[in-house]
What we know:
Blueprint: E1 2-4, H1 20-25, H2 34-45, H3 54-57, H4 63-78, E2 83-85, H5 103-106, E3 108-110, E4 122-124, H6 129-135, H7 143-151, E5 154-158, E6 163-167, E7 171-173, H8 200-205, H9 210-229, H10 244-254, E8 258-259, E9 262-263, H11 267-270, E10 274-275, E11 287-288, E12 302-303, E13 306-307, E14 318-327, E15 337-346
Parallel strand pairs: 1-2, 2-5
Antiparallel strand pairs: 3-4, 5-6, 6-7, 8-9, 10-13, 11-12, 14-15
Helix pairs in contact: 4-7, 4-10, 7-9, 9-10
Amino acid sequence: xxxxxxxxxxSFLKLTLSNLxxxxxxxxxxxxxxxFQDAIAVARRLGCKYIWIDSLCIIQNSTEDWIHxxxxxxxxxxxxHCNIAATWNSSSDDGLFKKRNVSEVEGIVVSPQxxxxxxxxxxxxxxGLWESLISLAGLNKRAWVVQERLLAPRVLHFxxxxxxxxxxGVDACETYPTGLPVAQxxxxxxxxxxxxxxxxKTLQSMGDSESSTKLYAYHVWNKIVxxxxxxxxxxxxxxxxxxxxxxxKMQTLLQDEYLAGLWKGTLSSDLLWKVIDGKQANxxxxxxxxxYRAPTWSWAALDGHITxxxxxxxxxxxxxxxxxxxxxxxxxxxxxxxxxxxRLRGALLPGI
Length: 352
């Protein structure tokens, strides 16, 4: 199992070069923050012997180990039995289990009596329940979590008032244990629908032609980028590496060359990305990265809420002659970069 959580400002036990040997020998769970202890209890209750927690599985003061493990994080979450998400926590000390008002989960039952009509029982629940319970939660404002939610086959959310569940078949919660009704489904639900590997039904419905299916897969990637760009990163240089697991999965599907968050097959139209209202998702003005992390023609070069260019293979007025990115670490083309450039050909039109 794996854990998605927010670290918070509190100090807690982390894996470092100095305590590596001691922690390998074993340590008391009582010395861990409450969220970690609760996650271990959940894993045991579900019959899982192992749990992956970033701060305990990556050497925190080793750049070499970070680069190695960060590149593997996509595989870690994709191969997890279930990802435990401390969705409403602000720090690792908050824990997963909280006191709550059960009536908020069950809703209010109303049985009006109508003259001349059959009596019907209604249940009054919060409209936009999933948005307030999951989508607006602090954890899901983290950019890293987009990848963690999409790659994990199952996500168990510990929310503000109740548990919620995401898998490739259904979004559910304690109020709606068999799945959200249509009235509660929005663009914020069915998050797994952005996963190119689990969007098979939609891909098939696009038609039998290979071009239709592939073009739709590019659209899926753009939805991922839009969701990802709305998240926050504590370390700005993580911009490309925090989505590299999804990029690797998409590359397997597309059999295309990945170029700093864009794809060579649709690069001409991908270059038409823009920043929504010139701002980041938190309302601050969009800014360029202080230190280099991507070429300027990539959305990854800045912090901003992105509308990606619409993938298109028709009506393209330029041709890409050459496109190159140079990875910071040899053999890791999906992660951090040290340079990149493109050479394109197009027609010049007379100005006014």
